[in-house]
Specification:
It comes from Spizaetus tyrannus (black hawk-eagle). This protein is mainly alpha-helical and 139 residues long. Helix content is 75%, strand content 0%.
């Protein structure tokens, strides 16, 4: 898709690409600023190359305006999600409690895996099964 975006932007040319610049930059910006653990470095390099291509194509000033608008929109969305999560904690404490229990359970499992990888002879205690009682609501 990134290659397609680059090809379309070159094909449209300098004047006709400007209205679509924020739309094209949104996935490229998201890929550049992603913090996923299993991120593909080739995608990051490709998005950087296409951003450089767009910068040369439309000029630095137009590119900077579009890129800053994409950044502002991403930051606004991030802040809105954070605010909604905080409001949900207050509005629905049972959902928040379930999320917290799940997070703590995952953290304990991660800790056990880490210990096992560091000391192969050590075997951490694992739950016997993921039965229906694990899925039950906590009172």
């Amino acid at each position: 898709i990134f290659k397609f975006l680059g090809a379309v932007s070159v094909d449209l040319g300098k004047d006709r690409i400007k209205p679509y610049l924020p739309t094209i930059l949104t996935p490229l910006y998201r890929e550049l600023n992603s913090t996923y653990a299993e991120q593909d470095p080739t995608l990051k390099n490709l998005s950087q190359e296409i951003i450089e291509l767009l910068k040369k194509l439309v000029g630095l000033e137009a590119f900077s305006l579009a890129f800053s608008s994409v950044q502002k929109q991403a930051n606004r969305k991030r802040a809105m999600r954070k605010k909604q999560r905080a409001l949900q904690t207050v509005a629905n404490p049972d959902i928040a409690a379930r999320r917290k229990l799940k997070r703590h359970k995952n953290k304990a499992e991660t800790r056990k895996r880490k210990i096992e990888s560091l000391r192969p002879t050590y075997k951490a205690k694992r739950p016997r099964s993921h039965a229906v009682k694990d899925l039950a609501m906590v009172e």
